[in-house]
């Protein structure tokens, strides 16, 4: 809905003569990263393929796992209508510099004069419930909320700065009813909306406690992995200069026989994935490849996440499960 809103917003302003140049320049232009979830990435690719918009995918740095703020801003064109960069990556946990993008974009918008404002959206699905998320501090125009990522029901929400203000528009995608102030037709799912509100209330009240617990257990997991597998452990997405979400550990156990899907298939209690949950599980993660992880290492990746109720005893059990799975694979290899 946010991306479609940006397209409509751009076409309205361009019809008033804001954008010039060739036909390519007249298309609404989006700037995003090569780290985005498919819910953003595939929509933008589809718009580009059908000729509705043009898109610049800014590559993340292999040194930080983040997009560089200046790289994002240098991609701006007269026809740029929106920058959309996720707040934290769902596979590595690396937190992106949204506040810095917002601060510099504000200065650029002030200097554009007759050109339309460039809107800023961030997908905060992975961040909410793990770290503090403050829309005023971030300075974004739109922010995506996904309830089940922070123990709420499977329902989402969109934050829109100053809803109703023409500078930050919101246009409906569907028509046929007057619900939700005419932004979306259909009877509201009141129970899930209430559940989302309660989950958000708990996050606001307890975020420091949640964050400290997640960080403590995740750090313990990484220590135990290194104790168990020594120098065979590679922590994907852990960069000295970048912050990560406190619940996320993306790890590879180095060996040409220990591809992630094989390790998981031999685990007895561990439930995990090798990348985004909605992706095929038998190919290296495009996200890891995008931040410079070698393909041979990316193929072995395990995305491990801890939760509010995960204990260090749970971690000890998982480590033993991984040890037996690795031993089983390696012993089978020797026998054959």
Describe this structure in a few short sentences:
The protein is of the alpha/beta class. It has helices at residues 2-14, 23-26, 38-49, 69-74, 98-111, 135-138, 190-229, 260-265, 286-290, 295-298, 312-335, and strands at residues 29-33, 54-58, 80-84, 119-123, 142-146, 156-160, 233-236, 248-253, 301-305.
Keywords:
336 residues; alpha/beta; six-stranded mixed β-sheet; 13% strand; globular
What do you see in this structure?
The protein is α/β, with parallel strands linked by helices and 336 residues long. The chain has helices spanning 2-14, 23-26, 38-49, 69-74, 98-111, 135-138, 190-229, 260-265, 286-290, 295-298, 312-335; strands at residues 29-33, 54-58, 80-84, 119-123, 142-146, 156-160, 233-236, 248-253, 301-305. The protein contains eleven helices and nine strands. The protein has a six-stranded mixed sheet with strand order 2-1-3-4-5-6, with helices on both faces. Strands 7-8-9 form a three-stranded antiparallel sheet. The longest helix is centred in the middle third of the chain and has 40 residues, at 190-229. Residues 16-21 have low confidence and may be disordered.
